[in-house]
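Name: DUF2029 domain-containing protein
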Amino acid sequence: MEAMSVREDPQAQPVRPTSEDPVAAAGSELIGGPAGRRALLGTGWWTPVRIVAIVAIGMFALGMAQKLPCYDGGWFYGATAQYTHACYSDIPHLYNGRGFAIDLVPYFDRIPDSVSGGMQYLEYPVLTGLFMEVASWMTPHGGSIQDREQIYWLVNAGMLMVCTAVIAVCVARTHRRRPWDALLVALAPAFALTATINWDLFAVALTAAALLMWSRSRPLAAGVLLGLATAAKLYPGLLLGPLLLLCLRAGRLRAFWTAAGGALAAWLVVNLPVMVSTQGGLHIRDGWKTFYTFSQERPVDFGSLWLIISQRTGNPLEDVNTYGTVLMVLACVGVAALALCAPRRPRLAQLSFLIVAAFVLTNKVYSPQYVLWLIPLAALARPRWRDFLVWQACEVMYFLGIWMYLAYTGSGDQHRGLPAEGYQLAIAVHLLGTLYLCALIVRDALVPERDPVRQDGSDDPGGGVLDRAPDAFVLGEARRASRYEGAALVDWGVHRE
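Structure predicted for DUF2029 domain-containing protein:
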C-alpha cells in the first residue's frame, strides 16, 4: 500500500505533458493516446531521459539526411544549388577556407589570402576553434579536397550529434519532475534543420550542462561550464546577468560570486594561452582578437531588424553598433525590472530566455543556426507545445527564406528565389515569432499562476539554491508579498497541498 501511494503521489512522478497540454494530448493519438492515470511511464530501461535522447539523435539524423543534396555535390559544383536545396553548411567551406586543409594552427598561423578570401585568422572563439581543429585531426588528408571536405563535415556532424545527446539529457534532467519537456528540444524542426550549419551546438551543450549543474545547487561547476561555453560562443556569458539579479533578490549572492568566479577562471584558462603573446614584447595576439574585431566591424548583415531598415531606406546604418547597444541596454533594464519587481521571483529559465532573445533581436546579424541558442531555454521557460510550435514555424519560415534569398541574389539575371521584399517578410516573421514567445514568458512572470511549470505548486525547479528561497531584496509591489520571510512562497501557492 505504501508503494502504491508513492506511485500515485503527484509530487513523486514525472509530469505528463498529455495531462496538462492539449496539443501534446492530441499529438499523442498518433502513438495510442494519452497515458492513463496509473500508467508507469519511463520504467525499466526506457526512462524519459533515454527516450528523449534517442528521439533527439533520430531527429539529428534526419537533419543530416536533409543535407544530402549538398553532400552529393551542392557544396562544390553549383553556386546556388546549396541554397535552392536549403542544405548550406559553413563546415565544409571553412575546412579549406580557414586553413585546416593545409594544417594551419588557428590563431597562430596567418591564413593566405588565396585560401581565405581576405580573412587573416579564424574568426571564432578559442574553444570553438579547438573543436574545429580536433575534427580536422580526424579527417584524412588524402584524396581530393571535395572528398576531404565531405569527411570533415561527417566528422563534425558526429561530434555535434554527441552535443545533441548532451543537450537532450541535460534539459530532461534540469527540471526533475518534467523530463518530458525536453521532447520540445528533441522534436524541434528548427533544431534538426540548423544543427550542422555551424558549430553552435558545442556552446549550447556546455550551456545546458551549466544550467543542469546550477539546478543541482552546484554553482562552481555551473560557473566553470558557463565559462567554457562563453569561450566557445559569446552568448552564454549573458546568463550571468539573470543569475546576479535572481541571487540578489533571493539573498544568495555567495552562490552567484562562486559561479561568476568559476566562469571567469575557466574562460581565462582557455583563452590566456592563445590571447597573450610574448614575441616582441607582451601583447594581445592578432589571431585571438579577430573574433572580437570582426564582430565589432562587420556591417549590417543577414536576418536582422537593421537589414530591413537598411534595405528599405537605402541607409547603410554605419552607427548600427550604437543603435544595437542602446536597444540591448534598454532590454537589460527591462529584464532587471522584471526580476526585481515581479510579484514572485521569476524562474532562471525565463530570464535566461529573455536576455538571450534580446541579444538575438537587437544584434546586427541573425544566422539561422542562432535559433539553437534559444530552443533549450524555451523548453525550460515555457513548456507548452502550441506556443513552441508557433515559434518554430516562424523559424522554419526564416530558415527557408534566407536560402531562397541567397539563391535569388546568386542566380544572376535569372532571379530564381526570393527577392529582397520577400526576405524582409521572412525576417519580420522571425522577429515577431520570437517576440511572441517573449511576451508569453513575461506574462507568466507577472502572473505566476499562468506559468505552466508552477501550476503544480513548484517554485523554480531549475533554480538550484534559488528554488523556494524567500525574497531578500525586492522593488515595487513585490515588497508586499515578501514582507515576512517565506511569505511570497506561501501567498503564491508554492506550499499548497
